Amino acid sequence: MTDIPKTMRAVVLKRHGGLDALSYEAAWPVPQPAPSQVLIKVLATGMNNTDVNTRAGWYSKSVTEATTGDAYDSLDGAADNTWGGAGIQFPRIQGADICGRVVAAGAEADQSLIGKRVIADNWLRDWDDPLNMHTAGYFGSEADGGYAEYTVIDHRNVAAVNSDLTDAELATFSCSYATAEGMLDKSGVGADDVVLVTGASGGVGGALIQLAKRRGARVVALASPAKHAEVAKCSPDAILPRAPQNLKQALQDAIGRDHVTVVADIVAGDYFATLIEALDRGGRYVTSGAIAGPIVSLDLRTLYLMDLTFFGSTVNPPQTFRNLVSYIEAGEVKPMLAATYSLEDFKEGQQAFIDKVHTGNIVVVP
Question: What is the homologous superfamily of the domain 7-172+335-364 according to CATH?
Answer without folding.
Answer: Medium-chain alcohol dehydrogenases, catalytic domain (3.90.180.10)
